[in-house]
Design goal:
The radius of gyration is 23 Å and the shape is elongated. The two termini are 36 Å apart. It has three helices and seven strands. The chain folds into two domains: 1-28 and 117-170; 35-116, no CATH class. By secondary structure, it is of the alpha+beta class. The strands form two sheets. A five-stranded antiparallel β-sheet has the order 5-4-1-6-7, with no helix packed on it. A two-stranded antiparallel sheet has the order 2-3.
C-alpha cells in the first residue's frame, strides 16, 4: 500500500511541477525565438476582446488574460489571433501596441506573436523547459517503479528479477 501511496504522491508532484513551470513560463511576454533564424520581425497590434482565465489553467496558477489581437506586420499582412499569458490586457484595448512576429515551418505558416523581450528571457525559458522535461522523466520513472513494486510486490519483483538473470546466464 505504501508503494501505491508513493505513486500517487509522485503523480501529484508531476501535476504540481507542471503548474509551477507553466506559471513561470507565462511571465515571458515574447515570441520564444532564441536563435536569430528565423528573425523576429517588428509588427503592431491592436487589442480587442479579452477573456480572463484561472485560477488554474494552461497558463499555470493565477489569473491570466487571453486577448484577441489584430496584428499588422511590416509586409502589410493583417493577422487576427489570440495571445495568452497576459501579454496584453484589457488596459491595452484600442491602443497600438509594439509587437514582434516570428514564423516557422513550411511557407512560414506557424507564426508566433509577442512583445519585444530580451533573448536572455527566451534562453532562460528554453533552459527551464529542459529542466521541466528532465524532472518529468525522473518522476515518471519513479511512478512506474512504485507501481511495479506496489502491484507485483517487492519480494516477487526480486524473485522475478533473479529468475530472469539466471536464465540469461545459462
Amino acid at each position: 500500500m505504501t508503494q501505491l501511496g508513493t505513486a500517487v504522491a509522485l503523480i501529484a508532484a508531476i501535476v504540481l511541477s507542471a503548474l509551477v513551470f507553466d506559471t513561470l513560463a507565462s511571465f515571458y511576454p515574447g515570441t520564444g525565438a532564441v536563435k536569430s533564424t528565423p528573425a523576429e520581425q517588428p509588427a503592431e497590434a491592436v487589442v480587442g476582446e479579452c477573456q480572463r482565465v484561472g485560477p488554474v489553467s494552461g497558463d499555470g496558477l493565477g489569473y491570466w488574460w487571453h486577448c484577441a489581437v489584430t496584428v499588422r506586420t511590416r509586409d502589410g499582412r493583417q493577422v487576427e489571433t489570440v495571445v495568452e499569458h497576459s501579454v496584453v490586457t484589457p488596459d491595452d484595448r484600442d491602443k497600438t501596441i509594439e509587437f514582434r512576429e516570428v514564423c516557422y515551418g513550411k511557407d512560414n505558416s506557424d507564426c508566433r506573436y509577442g512583445r519585444p523581450a530580451s533573448r536572455v528571457w527566451a534562453l532562460a525559458l528554453s533552459s527551464l523547459g529542459i529542466v521541466r522535461i528532465g524532472l518529468l522523466l525522473l518522476l515518471a520513472v519513479g511512478v512506474g517503479f512504485a507501481l511495479v513494486r506496489g502491484v507485483v510486490g517487492v519480494p516477487a519483483y526480486y524473485a522475478w528479477h533473479n529468475r530472469r538473470n539466471k536464465t540469461r546466464n545459462t
